[in-house]
Amino acid sequence: MPPKAQAAGKGRGPAKRKLAEEFPPGEVLTDTSKKSWKLGAPIGQGGFGLLYLANENSSKTVGADAPYVIKVEPSDNGPLFSELKFYMRAAKPDLIQSWMTSHKMKYLGVPKYWGSGLHEKGGKRYRFMVMDRFGTDLQKKFEETGRRFPRKLVLQLGLRLLDILEYIHEHEYVHADIKASNLLLSHNNPNQVYLVDYGLAYRYAPEGVLKEYKEDPKRCHDGTIEFTSIDAHKGVSPCRRSDLEILGYCMVQWLCSKLPWEDKLQDPLYVRDVKLQCRDNVSEFMSKCFSSQDKPDELQKFMEEVKTLSYTDKPAYQKLRSILEAGLKSIGTKDDDKLEFSSAVSSNGAGPSSSAKTSKRKKVVDYKEESDDEVDGSPAKKRKSPKKKGVKEMKTASPKKKVATPKNTAARPKKALVEMGTQTTPGLKRGRGRPKKKAEPVDSE
User: Fold this and answer.
1) For the domain that residue 302 is a member of, what is the CATH number?
2) Rounded to the nearest 5°, which phi and psi values hold at 280?
3) Which of these, 18, 169, 331, 424, could form a disulfide with 74 (CB 3.0-4.6 Å)?
4) Which is catalytic among the residues 137, 163, 177, 273?
């Protein structure tokens, strides 16, 4: 589970981690199963890790069409180690293929784990992990389309994520950080989307034993502030309903452009209180986001269903799918496996509070230290990692305070992104949304 944040007033910021040394193209790494992998050009650089194109070791040079990527970081850093536990337990290719076969699925948006190990160079040790290569993230697509996705696309993404979440939930984990920047398109098929970044993944049922509900004020507000669950706001470890609640917030934002609490993301207690109000009255929440004649009934029904879940309940995944499928039918379409990202501002029915002009996001807690500079298939230039601010101590407050409906403010400036044609891998964030707390190894709960 994620470590506690340090208070800014104590004169101590996030712990600094060692930077990864850049390896030359052609460097060969051998994983724990004795399989060799050859590195190509570095295509991503974060605060302490590097991302390389890669392929199975051969006499050929690793080209721009390489099907794999390898994340490398100093062995005594923690983020990659944390994610490795999830990938090794739940993302082996044979496990994923078996699930797909038994559930008659064409594909499942969970990244496959191809290998990992330790590599020594210059007297230093590095940890690495091999994964599939992916394309661009959905946050970039969201910005490109004026911060609105068509209703059909939103419902299709919801269906894909239900498939993904059911799989990882059945393998004892929850993701806890679903958002557009953690959803990547396939490198080869733009109609396939994958959920990545398991840095906050939590083993909610080790060996089948469910964790108990327990509030911890020292762990409040973990995750990405605009989407994180009410459980997380209260310092409770994430559970299956948490993932589904986060998915609900994502679908609403993708369709209407802006959530009611996005004007005050710097105040996590305010965000928590508005989410509590919205959970208590889902209909009123939807009215804040959409005009009355264009309110998507299926999203309201989805959130009402999630609201009925207790902390340890197993969700009715098929019922939730049926709700979204009914939404597709209501607009005269169906899931045809084609993801179309064209803007549909005039048809989404966003109300006054869902204007495409949104306020600038402010940092609440420095959950992640790293940032990404990514390039399109060419060697990454070494850049200085941004200086990190200390984290602010969260004060507890009564949830009974009166909360005013947030008003739209100045337009949100688009964040410049560089197309790189591959994924942001574990521990290599693009800096979209709120930063997150570091996760400790997921098997240490």
Assistant:
1) 1.10.510.10
2) -70, -30
3) 18
4) 177
Q: Which domain holds residue 157?
A: 135-354
Q: Please provide the DSSP assignment of 338-362 as one string.
A: -------GGGS-B-GGG-S--PPP-
Dump pLDDT digits (tens) for 92-115.
999 999 999 999 999 999 999 999
**What is the share, in percent, of the chain residues with pLDDT greater than 90?**
62
For residue 265, being part of any structural domain is answered with yes
Q: Any known ligand binding at 258?
A: no
Q: Does the residue 108 lie in any domain?
A: no
Beta-carbon contacts of residue 120 (< 8 Å; ≥ 6 apart): 126
Start-to-end CA distance of the chain, whole Å, equals: 6
Q: DSSP string covering 129-166, please?
A: EEEE-EEEEHHHHHHHTTS---HHHHHHHHHHHHHHHH
Both tokens assigned to 135: 């394309």
Q: Is 177 a catalytic residue?
A: yes
Could you tell me the CA-to-CA distances from 38 to 55, 88, 230, 421 in Å, in that order?
A: 6, 21, 44, 19
- Token readout for 60 is 């050929």
Average pLDDT value for residue range 161-165: 98
Let me know if residue 330 belongs to a domain.
Answer: yes
Provide the token pair at 311: 């902390």
Tell me the CB-side half-sphere exposure of residue 17, using CA atoms within 13 A: 23
